[in-house]
Design a protein that fits this description.
11 helices, alpha/beta, FAD/NAD-bd_sf, single chain, EC 1.-.-.-, 8-stranded mixed sheet, NAD(P)/FAD-dependent oxidoreductase, FAD-dep_OxRdtase, globular, oxidoreductase, 9-stranded mixed sheet
């Protein structure tokens, strides 16, 4: 967690110079770990997974120390598109032979619960994070419409309590000022928010519950055993249990986990504030959007009417020198009305991708007191909150079926080793993109 992507040099406060960092305001700072500390649980990683696990553990009466290599929210948690979308984003039916029909249904219900955890946390603690409800999934091909119809029907059978509405092509102007899409599924139970404000608000709640937070305290080595010892440059933490929540930034700390999550780059640009007229023309209902392609676009308005436009997920490890120049043409394909609009912010970050696209939540093999959560494959905002709850329940002995369901799913190690892993997957993703054109 030390180097930013090209074009995203680190800001003075340790964050990449994103729109989020510029509009968060003053933030609490936490010292680096020095000396030896003791806790029931040590959490490594100060993003949504780590903060929410720590918060949930503290609510259950356990003492927690959290170590972050950079500053809280430095990674994807503080840089993402801010889209709060139900579910995990990928086909869960493939797990039916392993988990059975009931297990797959339980996963789908957990995907809905994940969103409600965020909703309730924001409401309970009055976290100011520009939360806005409403999301539309966009069809770029005719076959996507059939998928959206099936998705809508399934959500209704699951008892989804929020408004869902299918939009055919001739009705798309009600949701978006673009002629690019064949239709969409409007969902009033998903939405968008300012992710860095949410993360820091949750960190403040965790701190108020007694969680000890340390920044610029990278975990360098782990001594395993009945008691775990995590070493940093300035100290060490002894704990009965350990949670590894580094996701795409796990690095060499735990090779077993690193081989199962592939860091992939994603990029976002933010325009200058748009006029009320133009903002309403583009996004009349102020929804969040993403399309259904393998390498998708996602976009929304900020609270001050900027268009935040993201996507172009890269697996190759080669990042653009100028993110704005790279992303602007993609934005103009959707909204040619923005041809003369200035780009004020550009940034990128790493997301964690798993081979089967299911979040990886479980225990380390051979280490029953070491837990982990990673590989959210672009749906981290809600899935991290679910992971935090499931991990805390497991550690506190409040076992629910959910943790065991996730833990039962095997996760393949990406082939090729650290150097060939990304290029091999890039070739696979290229094949998927070519198939979309057929």
């Amino acid at each position: 967690m030390k180097a930013a992507l090209p074009g995203t040099s680190t800001a003075d406060d340790g964050h990449a110079p994103s729109y989020y960092a510029a509009t968060t305001g003053p933030r609490a700072e936490f010292s680096a770990l020095e000396g030896e500390r003791q806790a029931d649980v040590c959490v490594v990683g100060g993003g949504f997974s780590g903060i929410n696990t720590a918060l949930e553990l503290a609510e259950r009466g356990l003492s927690v120390i959290l170590l972050e290599a950079g500053v809280l929210g430095w990674g994807a948690s503080g840089r993402n598109g801010g889209q709060l979308i139900r579910g995990f984003g990928h086909d869960l039916e493939r797990f039916r032979p392993l988990l059975g029909a009931d297990g797959v249904r339980a996963l789908k219900l957990l995907g809905l619960e994940s969103l409600e955890i965020v909703r309730q946390r924001i409401e309970r603690h009055a976290i100011d994070c520009d939360l806005t409800w409403g999301y539309c999934e966009l069809a770029t091909r005719a076959r996507h419409l059939e998928h959206l119809k099936a998705e809508c029907a399934e959500l209704q059978t699951l008892g989804y309590r929020h408004e869902l509405r299918l939009l055919e092509a001739e009705r798309m102007h009600e949701a978006i000022g673009s002629r690019r899409y064949r239709g969409g599924l409007l969902d009033r139970g998903s939405g968008h928010l300012h992710p860095l404000r949410l993360l820091l608000g949750e960190a403040a709640v965790a701190r108020s519950l007694g969680v000890r937070l340390f920044e610029r305290s990278a975990a360098l080595r782990i001594d395993h055993g009945q008691e775990v010892c995590v070493h940093t440059a300035g100290g060490r933490v002894r704990a009965a249990s350990l949670v590894l929540a580094g996701n795409a930034h796990i690095g060499n700390l735990e090779p077993e986990l690193a081989g199962k999550v592939l860091p992939a780059s994603s990029y976002i640009i933010a325009t200058e504030p748009l006029s009320p007229t133009l903002a309403t023309e583009l996004l009349p209902q102020n929804l969040a959007f993403s399309d259904m392609r393998t390498v998708l676009d996602y976009f929304r308005l900020s609270a001050d009417r900027r268009l935040l436009f993201g996507g172009a997920c890269h697996y190759s490890g080669h990042d653009p020198r100028d993110i704005a120049a790279y992303m602007r043409p993609k934005m103009l394909e959707v909204f040619p009305q923005l041809a003369g609009v200035r780009i004020d912010y550009q940034w990128g970050g790493l997301i964690g991708i798993g081979a089967n696209r299911l979040p990886q939540i479980g225990r380390l093999s051979g280490q029953p007191n070491v837990y982990y959560a990673q590989a959210y494959s672009g749906h981290g905002l809600n899935a991290t909150h679910l992971a935090g709850r499931l991990l805390a329940e497991a550690i506190a002995g409040q076992h629910r079926h959910g943790f065991e369901l996730f833990a039962r799913v095997p996760h393949r190690t990406f082939p090729g080793g650290p150097r060939l892993r990304a290029p091999l997957l890039a070739l696979g993703m290229l094949w998927c993109r070519l198939r979309e054109l057929l």
